[in-house]
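Input sequence (693 aa), recorded before submission:
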Amino acid sequence: MSAEATNPEAHPEARPELRRRGRSRIDLRRLGRAALLGPTSRDRLPDAIGHVAEAHRAHHPDADLSVLRRAYLLAESSHRGQMRKSGEPYITHPLAVTLILAELGAETTTLTASLLHDTVEDTDVTLDQVREEFGDEVCFIVDGVTKVEKIDYGAAAEPETFRKMLVATGNDVRVMSIKLADRLHNMRTLGVMRPEKQARIAKVTRDVLIPLAERLGVQALKTELEDLVFAILHPEEYESTRALIAAHAGERDPLPAIADSVRTVLREAGISAEVQVRPRHFVSVHRIARSRGELRGSDFGRILVLVGENADCYGVLGELHTCFTPVVSEFKDFIATPKFNLYQSLHTAVATPEGYVAEVIVRTRQMHRVAEAGVVALGNPYATATADSVADPDEERVDPTRPGWLSRLLDWQQSAPDPDTFWTVLRAELAQDREITVFRADGGTLGLPAGASCIDAAYAQHGEAAHGCIGARVNGRLTSLSSPLSDGDTVQLLLAQDASSGPAAEWLDHARTPAARIAISSWLETHPDRALATTSAARAPLSVVGARGGGANAVADLPDAAVRLAGCCTPVPPDAVAGFLVRGGAVTVHRVQCAAVAQMRAVGRTSVAVHWRATADCRVTLLAESFGRPHLLADLTEAIAQEGVEVVSATVEPPVEGRVRHTYTLQLPDAAGLPALMRAMRDVPGVYDVSRA
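Predicted structure, token format:
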């Protein structure tokens, strides 16, 4: 971590938190000099962490600061003599990281671990010492943030460090909170590094840390990290955006006047609310400029309305939409349906009489705190545990703040022992910036990335048992495994009873989650013969023709006329039927509901009365639709034979997306047995529908 430290003055324009808070910048050099002078009297905090104590007490007035004093003294003494690349005493780095977290509202345990987060990695302090002095929780967090030794892992050190950190985050999200604050301070002070190293660090920040900040809901860190990365990786676009913002600063800003109008409307409505104008950060302005072209004054910021209760949010929305012209397409309700990263707010946009369109965000103060600080605002996830309870150190701790995406990540990383595979898949997983929730048929839920298919749901629910998945029902309707899922869908996954079933190679084209892709790839690698079979060219339809034909058992009221049953509707006794004279003097017999009956009458075909013979036997054509699996044709023909029915002919079409269509022409000894035959065919595993042709 110390290798990323450099010039603290780099990119001051890309630090929106300074504009937002209006606070003077803390002189880390002065704090470093104070740290080198050693602690003051034993009964008060050293001056060097006075800013941390002030920020901490602002969120936690009753916090016990004695543990912070002890943590600072250990960190300062262990880092004494170490310098950053910028020439500052090294203790300024853990102080700055801790101050970032304190301003976000982190609780005391997080701040204690933050002060110590580099001691085990960069000094002679051991984890046992940390545990003895500060307890198991602080030790666990410090260990989670500590990098693995490069001498042991070589080029795989960075991926393995992130793997270790993410696994620790699965047990305690405070680990990643400290890592994000650590990276933010290092990005703020990246200026004296070589350009190529700046770019490398910025790319990792863009691909891994910023998505993690988004998923954990820490928007205050995410937006500043985005701006800092933007300045390094896209300097020309950054400069043009900076110039655009600077030009706007010299023009009249319509947002304060609109905010005043909103205050007046809410005051007259009796709604107590705080109305602010929130400037957009650099990357947000850049995105808006790319999507909208020329920007107007109201595009450089948004109006934020803070209220006390959830109901007040909807009251504000009603007043805004009544007193201004709403832009309906811009309305989003993230209170009723929160984002997967804890975010809740109402988003809308209103047009003013002057022609400006202002985006408005409405939320409660608690929602605002969570929107800014994410999981950091949740405090200690174990605070409700009883003091007498003793956790098993070998048992995974259950974190109530663990989101679904993190659980998925922890599951699939176990199947990716290769560091390169883990690193590649991790970046791809984090690139999925939206999440959906689908409901299982048994009442549970599955959290999946947007765009996930039934294949992803199968592996999320059943693990490796999903190799035998043969289909799914989504919202009660049968569908192929490749079908994408939407938020709120109910999915029922159908598994084959044959243990030898396996995935097809084309499943990889539709799998979005790493767990599914890794499991499918591993199975195909261990079953090369089966994998080849699943990707072989489509075969021609398989046809089986019986040894004997069958005469029609319908009689036409036309002497010596040949009678044949229409193949389009295959009528059987006791169906109501109609006959028509066709070329050659033959009579074709259709069910009266058949579409061909209307066509025959429209073209003037001669109608002939027909009736069924006294004999009960009949011929019928049935369509059986099923999921492909081994031995399916044999099982179907066996079920037909057990009903005493003769197969006249059978056609099996090539599989399409795992589904197979069978067409059977059957000779029944008694037409009354047709319903039982169709039920027996439906009971064959993998068959989901049987119908008359």
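Checked by second reader. The CA atoms of residues 642 and 680 lie 9 Å apart.
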